[in-house]
Amino acid sequence: MRETSMPGSASFFENVYDVVRQIPAGRVTSYGAIAEYLGLRGSARMVGWAMNAAQTPDNDVPAHRVVNRNGMLTGKHHFGGPLIMQQLLESENIEIIDDQVVRFGELFWDPAKELTS
DNA sequence: AAGCTGACTATGG
DNA sequence: GCCATAGCCAGCT
After folding, report:
1. Residue nearest to nucleotide B9 (CA to C1')
2. How much of chain A is helix, strand and coil, in % rounded to 5?
């Protein structure tokens, strides 16, 4: 892993990044799924918060592939623009209607199942 | 040091 | 079916 972070800052943030980076293009996942995979479970907010920190140019974390449980682009406004997230997803053949991922159930990528720890 | 906030989720009314 | 409340944990003021 890239110890680009500061010394001693090893936190679940890197765990989140690692999982998000493994999300295949054209797929999406939810905060809760990642949180549960990391053992945070109900603390899906922490995952979202990790995404907030993932906005740094040093990270290659496709945070746009992470949406809420409804498949809604809740964090779209945090990408520097309210349409950035949608455009990124559309560029990966993911259809977005009304800030929501179409066929979210089909595109959903569960780390707990796909990564088979 | 203590309290608030937050890119969520589940439950209740 | 929609609105309100509670639980969650880590970072910031």
Report:
1. A42
2. 45, 10, 45
**Which bases of chain C are under 7 A from a protein CB atom?**
7-11
What is the sign of the dihedral through the CA atoms of A70, A42, A59 and A25?
Answer: negative
- Asked if residues A80 and A52 have their Cβ atoms less than 8 Å apart, the reply is no
A108 touches strand B (CB under 7 A): no
What CA–CA distance (Å, rounded) separates A58 from A73?
23
Instruction: Tell me the per-residue pLDDT of A2-19, one tens digit each, with 9 for 90 and over.
Output: 444 344 445 778 889 999
**Domain A10-114, CATH:** 1.10.10.10
pLDDT digits (tens, 9 = 90+) for A31-50: 999 999 998 888 899 999 99
Phi, psi angle pair for A99, to nearest 5°: 60, 25
Name the β-bridge partners of A72. A100
**Using CA atoms, how far apart are residues A46 and A44, in angstroms rounded to an integer?**
5
pTM reported for the whole predicted model: 0.88
